[in-house]
């Protein structure tokens, strides 16, 4: 039988750090949205003209998925710090 020992305070701190990272990524996504979804052709040639809308399309798809909830960190029903502390405050029975 395996045992896992965890310190609720450390897990709570890690969850808070994860939320901070998620906030920073969301801010960066918002800042980059305009520049990445409207890519201009790098040159006057036909390859540049064909590639620019392709990159813009990928960026628009990414932003749409991110807006619909595919962002970071994945949400499991609320504040990860609060749910971690709540789950670890109760004794857990071993699972087979």
Automatic annotation (TrEMBL):
Among InterPro entries, the record links this protein to: PE-PGRS_N, PPE_sf
Protein name per its UniProtKB record: PE domain-containing protein
Q: Which residues form the PE domain?
A: 4-70
UniProt source species: Mycobacterium tuberculosis variant africanum K85
Query: Which branch of life, at top level?
Result: Bacteria
Give positions of region: Disordered: 65-96
């Amino acid at each position: 039988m395996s045992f896992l020992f965890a310190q609720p305070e450390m897990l709570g701190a890690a969850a808070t750090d994860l939320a901070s990272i998620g906030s920073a990524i969301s801010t960066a996504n918002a800042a980059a949205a305009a520049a990445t979804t409207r890519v201009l052709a790098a040159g006057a040639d036909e390859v540049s003209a064909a590639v620019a809308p392709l990159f813009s399309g990928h960026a628009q798809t990414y932003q749409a998925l991110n807006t619909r909830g595919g962002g970071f960190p994945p949400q499991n029903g609320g504040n990860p710090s609060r749910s971690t502390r709540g789950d670890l405050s109760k004794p857990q029975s071993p699972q087979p």
